[in-house]
Amino acid sequence: MKFKKSQKLYNKGLVNLVGAVNSPVRAFASVGGNPLFIEKAKGSKIIDVDGNSYIDYVLSYGPMILGHRHKKVQKAVTKALKNGYSFGASTENEIKLAKIVCDAFPGMDKVRFVNSGTEAVLSGIRLARAYTGKDKIIKFSGCYHGHQDSLLVAAGSGLATLSLPGSKGVPEGAVKNTLIANYNDLESVKAHFEKHDDIAGVIIEPVGGNMGVVIPQNNFLKDLKELANKNGALLIADEVMTGFRSTFGGAQEVLGVEADITCLGKVIGGGFPVGAYGARNEIMENVAPLGGMYQAGTLSGNPIAMVGGIATLSTLKKQNPYKQFDAVGVEIEEAILSSAQKYGVDVTVNRFGSMMNPFFTNKKVTNFEEAQTSDTKKFAVFFWEMIKNGIFLPPSQFEAWFLSSALTEKNISKTKKALDNALKAVSE
Ligand code: PLP
């Protein structure tokens, strides 16, 4: 397998781009080597500039749940382009997408569209503060909520990959109202409530996806909601990754919890820049122009992105691939475990529907600390062997793999063979 053209573009990219990437998770910092440059993608496959074809489990870090260039999405967006790209005024499709989203999440009467998951969460946090009149926010170690200042502490994703505890450039004042708790540890949350009476909200990824996949144990989410509300704080579900992915109604539907504020992104735009935050009427009425919490956006509710979102979500609803995701997920999970056993490699697999990943550890992984027991050197060997076998995975131990509904049986059996080869390589 050759990477000559990718290598050339990487060197060229270094001149005017930072590290030749526009998001640090795309760098190959923790697996070695240089990032691949992509030419195109279709269905379950992604193809780099050297013509190497891979089965794609990155899926743009989640959005491409239908696979790439699904014909319904492509057709709808191509048609919409003919009417103009941005108006700075309302369109009917914003109302249509809002209805699809509010119908899927019972805790949402109203929604506001923004351009990214980061914007969705920073607005959701502001809303919790506006509604409660309090300042402090509890977040969980290992959860990533985008790159806003106040939540860039003990964050997962690229910070975990690069072993950064936080970000330079974030003033102390910006994080002074951020309290850190441990995932799956209600006592660590209780301790904050006992000490502080000005907590506006508790933000959580209902299923962790940015420290690798970490699943809430027992009734953690339900207990968290009860604890937050009992103390006059809101539960903010960051479903940027899990929304429309865990099932159509997100992780909240699977886990039987209704958050006070829900933040969305990724799948909701089907590959176009869309984020959203929403809640019950009494909460959303605080947002301008109805209320005094200001939040705006030149490109928010962008007409092309709205059409991409509508086409993606309506196709997804019709396909209803969630049972199938589970079946494919089980198959891949079992393949990892049986090859790992065959070659004597310590592996723990965490999976929630169509989100999964192996950790190279013999420990159960239920929080960030346990996730960090994974042997990242072994992951690097595993990653490159998967690439050589035609499988595109996120270049980090601390990112989730995603399934798309475009995966075929042939893709899955190729993946299983690749997993066997990669785990053998790890054992050598
Ligand atoms: N929240 C979660 C749970 C995420 O996984 C991400 C991105 O990976 C974000 C927020 C930030 O979204 P975006 O990258 O669209 O700004």
From TrEMBL:
Catalyses:
(S)-4-amino-5-oxopentanoate = 5-aminolevulinate
What EC number(s) does this enzyme carry? 5.4.3.8
Cofactors demanded by this protein: pyridoxal 5'-phosphate
Pathway in which this enzyme or protein is active = Porphyrin-containing compound metabolism; protoporphyrin-IX biosynthesis; 5-aminolevulinate from L-glutamyl-tRNA(Glu): step 2/2
Q: Which UniProt keywords apply?
A: Aminotransferase, Cytoplasm, Isomerase, Porphyrin biosynthesis, Pyridoxal phosphate, Transferase
Q: Tell me the GO BP annotations in alphabetical order.
A: protoporphyrinogen IX biosynthetic process
- Principal place where this protein is found? cytoplasm
Q: Where in the cell is it found?
A: Cytoplasm
- Keyword hit for Metal-binding: no
Q: Which GO terms describe its molecular function?
A: glutamate-1-semialdehyde 2,1-aminomutase activity; pyridoxal phosphate binding; transaminase activity
Q: Name one GO cellular component term.
A: cytoplasm
Modification type N6-(pyridoxal phosphate)lysine: residues: 266
Among the Pfam families in the record, one is Aminotran_3
Which InterPro entries does the record associate with it? 4pyrrol_synth_GluAld_NH2Trfase, Aminotrans_3, PyrdxlP-dep_Trfase, PyrdxlP-dep_Trfase_major, PyrdxlP-dep_Trfase_small
**Complex and partners:** Homodimer.
Q: Which family does it belong to?
A: Belongs to the class-III pyridoxal-phosphate-dependent aminotransferase family. HemL subfamily.
Checking NCBIfam families in the record gives:
hemL, PRK00062.1
Q: Under which name does UniProt file this protein?
A: Glutamate-1-semialdehyde 2,1-aminomutase
State the species of origin.
Answer: Tenacibaculum jejuense
Name the gene.
Answer: hemL
